[in-house]
Amino acid sequence: MIDTQAINKMQSTLVGGQPVWLFGYGSLIYKVDFDYLACKPARIANWTRRFWQGSHDHRGTPEAPGRVATLVEEPNASCIGMAYKVSPEVFEHLDHREKNGYLRLTTQLHFSDGSEAEGLVYIATEDNVAFLGPASEADIAKHIANSKGPSGPNDEYLLELAKALRELNAQDDHVFTIEQHLLALSS
Ligand code: SIN
After folding, report:
1. Residue 61 maps to which CATH number?
2. Which residues span the membrane (predicted)?
3. Which residue in 73, 98, 116, 118 is the catalytic one?
């Protein structure tokens, strides 16, 4: 089994103590439990947000995983999120928070003000043990409606993310379609 937390700790990108840009596209947009020096909306190219990652530790359990966001490569796609400039020490907390399968990758961030910078993003790739993979938006909504974990109900993750994306003026058909199914299930 791949220990993503150990791999993240060995990364050389944090050597030197300089602040680093981090791109958040899931709970890192709306649950900011870490210090940051600056933050601004950004997008990354050729990645798309998908609720294809299982959650054993936040929105589900190992026996009954929830479904949370990861990024999947898609040529010409663009994923909007929030970028935070953070001190390298913050990654000790973040690597623990994201320990269920997310690896830190380096990518180019395009900020909404037109500037660019290299940054890090946590991505759960399909070879991690918690990866669930594709399902229809209707099935994902049913799964989310029935899941909960130590961080709370799984629907809270989806609904908070959808709200935050609207505030960023980000169109995300995958997330908004799951939201519609979820709201229909609870009405
Ligand atoms: C992220 O938000 O950028 C990573 C996935 C998550 O923590 O929900």
Report:
1. 3.10.490.10
2. none
3. 98
